[in-house]
Design goal:
Elements lengths: L3 H6 L7 H13 L1 H9 L5 H6 L1 H15 L14 E8 L6 E8 L1 H14 L1 E4 L4 H4 L4 H6 L5 H17 L5 E5 L6 H13 L5 E5 H11 L3 H13 L2 E5 L8 H15 L5 E5 L3 H8 L1 E2 L3 E2 L1 H8 L6 E5 L9
Parallel strand pairs: 3-5, 4-7, 4-10, 5-6, 6-7
Antiparallel strand pairs: 1-2, 8-9
Length: about 325
């Protein structure tokens, strides 16, 4: 944004000197400046004159904000900020100061950025965590999942009131009923209260672990993040290409660490019995019923089962 001095210098002298004077008179007559002078009677003409550039900035940025085009198109000197004026001193010795103030939209964006920074996403579309949530999407879009939504909301409220729970949730149901969406909503809402979270899309995670096996530092870092985060969601569990190493050394280590410490959440097309069957067989070692039961002992006692009914919303 140009300063008043730059604006006046752009007017050739003496032909446009009158226009320069008119510009100054417009600033002096502006309601904001009039209000400022009424609030601070000690402001004399001399103080006003030597601070004309500050007043120009004050008036111009206020007008920009009153017709805000959005943060991405903010015309002010500092995006999301506007100039405020304060006055100190007494009559004959008044001093005028300007300072930048964050606008509401900037503060809201900063708050959302802070919330998003608390949530890690592994192979889940970031838009699911950043596009926001409307009451229509959560409560009204599908009456058939109302019971599941009620349980989810109750869990969120309980955590906000009592602190981090040891018990998580297991959302089971048909394809496309919004299980991942609801878990992202839970993470977002609890991130507002300062909790960290991570969501892992299991089919892609299982594939990527093969590459991580060659990078022990990255593997350890990933497992440590999933162990330590306040809220952990395994999304679409049971759809991954299971192998013994993933089940016993990765999932087993993470779940063993978290049980009785921090809640773990799951979404799946399988119920708990079907998930146990999934964990009891691998293409490499065949049937391993004992190992399936062992991993389920780290899941079943630490989740409340929630059925998510409704129609398939994908592509709607």
């Amino acid at each position: 944004m140009e300063s008043l001095g730059e604006v006046l210098r752009s007017l050739p002298n003496p032909k446009y000197r009158k226009q320069a004077e008119q510009k100054i008179q417009q600033i002096l007559a502006d309601p904001l400046v009039q209000k400022l002078r009424a609030k601070y009677p000690m402001l004399d003409d001399h103080t006003i004159k030597i601070n004309m550039n500050r007043l120009y900035q004050y008036v111009t940025e206020y007008k920009s904000c009153s017709q805000c085009p959005g943060l991405d198109k903010c015309p002010n000197d500092f995006t999301g900020h506007y100039t405020m004026i304060t006055v100190e001193g007494t009559e004959g010795d008044a001093r005028l100061y300007d300072h930048k103030v964050s606008c509401k939209k900037f503060l809201a964006e900063q708050a959302q950025s802070t919330i998003r920074s608390r949530i890690r996403s592994f192979y889940v579309d970031e838009r699911a965590l950043s596009e926001g949530y409307s009451s229509t999407e959560i409560f009204d879009k599908d009456p058939a999942r109302e019971e599941a939504v009620d349980k989810l909301i109750s869990y969120i409220l309980q955590t906000k009131q009592e602190g981090l729970q040891k018990q998580g949730l297991y959302l089971a149901g048909p394809l496309g009923t919004g299980k991942t969406f609801l878990m992202c909503y839970l993470l977002h809402e609890l991130a507002k209260s300062g909790y960290t979270g991570a969501i892992v899309y299991m089919p892609d995670f299982a594939e990527d672990l093969k590459a991580m096996f060659q990078d022990s530092a990255k593997l350890k870092e990933t497992i440590d993040v999933l162990k330590e985060t306040d809220l952990l969601v395994f999304d679409d569990i049971g759809a991954e290409n299971l192998n013994p190493w993933l089940r016993d050394h990765v999932m087993g280590a993470i779940l063993n660490y978290r049980m009785n410490r921090k809640p773990t959440f799951f979404t799946s097309n399988h119920d708990l019995s079907a998930l146990e069957q999934h964990f009891s067989f691998t293409s490499k070692d065949g049937d391993e019923e004992f190992k399936g039961k062992r991993i389920m002992d780290r899941i079943r006692p630490f989740v409340d089962m929630v059925m998510v009914n409704g129609y398939n919303k994908r592509g709607k």
